Amino acid sequence: MKKLVILGGGESGIGTAILAKKEGYEIFLSDKGRIKDKYKEVLRNIEIDWEDEQHTESRIFEADVVMKSPGIPDNTPLVKAIVEKGIPVISEIEFASAFSKTPVIGITGSNGKTTVTNWIQHVLQEGGINSGMGGNVGNSYAKMLAEEEHDWYVLELSSFQLDGIKNFRPKIAILTNITPDHLDRYDYKLENYVASKFRIIENQGEDDFFIYDADDENIQKWLKGHKVKSQKLPFSLVKTFENGAYIENENIVVKINNTTFTMPTQDLALQGKHNTKNAMAAATVSQLLRIRKQTIRESMANFQGVEHRLEKVLKINNVLYINDSKATNVNATFYALESMESETVWIVGGVDKGNVYDDLLPLVNEKVKAIICLGVDNAKIINAFGNCVEMMVETNSMNEAIQVAYRLAEKGDTVLLSPACASFDLFENYEDRGRQFKNAVRNL
């Protein structure tokens, strides 16, 4: 019986345990932190041996294979020790993919991947295709494989999940964009992070498809120096293609092997340049899967968007409050500020992942009237934007930030939570941050 050790008792760890149990592995799960009660309940129910708040190394080193949660960096002493002993360390995505022949649509990128994943799932469901959605959003891939039967899987994939693959091969791979993010995990080298994203296509063959943003400098630079085996389907706001997606007379045009889909950009459910690109990626997949054009158009127009991503919460005294808590990096916040059409009170801050704020300066000068810092350490934000705005206030709770915003915002303004940072200094995660924002606004 093969021995599997699972490091981390979160969504991917528990999903792996469920699938591994079904596949007959001997399993030991170990988490250095506290495992949530709902996950402990699952482990007890399926009778898995586990520990938390410690790592018993002697037991971990007995493994034939180790599945490491994406949150654990490769350079931790324990992971290094496992590798030195010649024990393979893989991700949940890699482990799960060995037990399935069902085709996968894999979506990665610094920004937009959750929106694209949800949008594709929406179109597939409207088109009558039995698809399951998960990965970095919702259920883990392993858990879905163990518990549900689908004809396609739509998986959001983070660079950390892709770092641990060996044979994983999506039928359709999507790369939304690459901007500096998580550089703290990649020795502060952009090229390491870019290489990590491109792992999504490393096992693809000529029957597979690669959909990507042809306007993205980092993607273009990588493609110039590397060969791609799969069929390329680029999308762009400024170029045109024989095969791919582009803009013509304010219409999205998707061309694949002499079939053409068109739709006016003004009919898209989500507006803004970045959402036009997200729509192109989703429409390209829909065309590949031969969903009826009318269904694609309707699904592109009635998609509800993603919680915590430019989510309009309420209008109070003619001030609009927008929750963009999912903006955990500078580029995501760039899109948010770019789409603001009124004077903006901007709530920003959290755990900085090596952010460089220079790109935001023109937008902040143009659109932002006041900045509210929401973080434990705001020095970098104050240094970057201190000269751009007349009002800058430091807060250390969401309620305080909203009270300040309420006082500063005037009729016709927008209050935007778009932190450009991770949330772990004051919140459990970006969802918790976004929910606290919405509750504080509703309580005004």
From TrEMBL:
Binding site for ATP: G109, S110, N111, G112, K113, T114, T115
Enzyme class: ligase
A molecular function GO annotation: UDP-N-acetylmuramoylalanine-D-glutamate ligase activity
Keywords: ATP-binding, Cell cycle, Cell division, Cell shape, Cell wall biogenesis/degradation, Cytoplasm, Ligase, Nucleotide-binding, Peptidoglycan synthesis
Boundaries of every Mur ligase central domain copy: 107-285
Superkingdom classification of source: Bacteria
Catalytic activity entry: UDP-N-acetyl-alpha-D-muramoyl-L-alanine + D-glutamate + ATP = UDP-N-acetyl-alpha-D-muramoyl-L-alanyl-D-glutamate + ADP + phosphate + H(+)
Family statement drawn from the similarity comment of this UniProt entry: Belongs to the MurCDEF family.
Function: Cell wall formation. Catalyzes the addition of glutamate to the nucleotide precursor UDP-N-acetylmuramoyl-L-alanine (UMA).
NCBIfam families membership: murD (TIGR01087)
Name of this chain's protein: UDP-N-acetylmuramoylalanine--D-glutamate ligase
Source species: Christiangramia antarctica
